[in-house]
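Sharing a chain and its predicted structure for anyone who wants a worked example. Both blocks are below, sequence first, tokens second.
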Amino acid sequence: MTLRSVFRSWMDHYFSDEEAVILLIVLVLGFAVVIWLGKMLAPFLTALVIAFLLQGAVNGLTRRRVPHFLAVMLVFLGFIGVLLAMALILMPLIWNQLINLVQETPRMFASVQQLLDDLQLRYPQLVTPDQIQAWIGMAGREVTQLGQRALTLSLASLGNVVALIVYLVLVPILVFFMLKDRDRLVGFIVSLLPKHRGLMTRIWQEMDDQIANYVRGKFTEIIIVGSVAFFTFAFFGLPYSALLAVLVGLSVLVPYIGAAVATLPVAAVAGFHFGLGDQFLYVLIAYGVIQALDGNVLVPVLFSEAVNLHPVSIILAVLFFGGIWGFWGIFFAIPLATLLKALVYAWPRGIKQRRQEVSQGERAAGS
């Protein structure tokens, strides 16, 4: 079999239907808009994701015979309440703990230096004074660069305060109208597509179910893991509990890698505050129990209907989308990978069903 025949067979398998070609064009245009106009459309894309999350609650209320507009108002007011609670309670708490952590950095460095000096006295053959000075100098340079980046970011962000306020006003407005006029907006978009779109409909339904399950499940997982981590850290009297809990909650966005990265600050803060004693060990055990329950109990319950991705696929998605869009690429890496996998599986199945429908229609017309 020649390369040309292989390529022709692949094209016939995926693009033998004109609707598949149109779907490919729509997908390419969609990704192009996000890549090149992502910053400009950031408020709209943010509102789209939030509305996608809240639509499940609206559907749940309407199934209980609550009028659509009332359901939208109840869900939207709940969203505004959560937003205000984060802005007035959670964010100031996290900011204060971050400032206290930065102010406590010199004392932490002194503790590290004392620990290294003790190691050098106990194991003079393994740890030399030159190595200690090199480690301290490297850590000092990293902290200095981090402080410079934070200062640059804070100074640069002063000019974006107006833009931030506009976003905070614009996003809730967009969310409200996306929830209220969802059918009208979807109808407008559908009117731009071809009339015969059975393949697109089947692929969209499969992807919509999987993406919806994943996004809503991941949001629930972040809330549960972050809340449990906060109460656990507060129970042990660990400082910066809110800051660490937010970090642990967001770490579930990147399976495997996120848990490993979040362990370092938790262990560092516990070690500096409690020392390498029993309390330090209890905190790490509790943190390990949280991670174990998340991976073995919470994730199977929340994502039983979502597409399962291989760990290699997850890592590649994080590297690829993170390299393109930075933090937001990492944030949406797994949903995008889930979308691509659903598309790969649904596309040939949809073409096959379309062919069967066409052949059945031809046989019915011939008879």
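Comments welcome. Residues 155-159 have pLDDT under 50 and may be disordered.
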